[in-house]
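Note to self: keep these together.
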Amino acid sequence: MRPGGRVLHLDTLARLRRAQRAAQPVLRLPVPEGMTTPLGCDAVAVPAGYGRLIMPRLPRVGCVYADAAHWWWLVPSDSDHALEWPAPARYVTGAVVPDVPQPPALIHRPDGTLPYTPPIPLYLTLCRVTGTAPAWSRPVSA
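Structure:
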């Protein structure tokens, strides 16, 4: 340390990082009016080309949002627990959409009051279209 210099502690760095994140605008996918999210809400994003392949293969589709580059599916919170979503999918907690200037458009709204796409069928369909084996079916190495 230089004479007169300041020492930054880990808690100071963590506080600065939180403040930096808080300063960035946060854009969440809006849940349509009349729908409830009793299980919380996260989202799975995929490139638009994959979205077109996935949608017709799902037995039930919840709210889906899209722009020119990505499609987002609303899923219950913690749908990433014990799942490795295959690339190029991106799992976002809180249904926060990063790096977009405006919200994507709602392209599918299910009947009823729940906005969720069931995560396991979405995961399996995504694995199929990306040619990725589901995490639980991969060989275990010692």
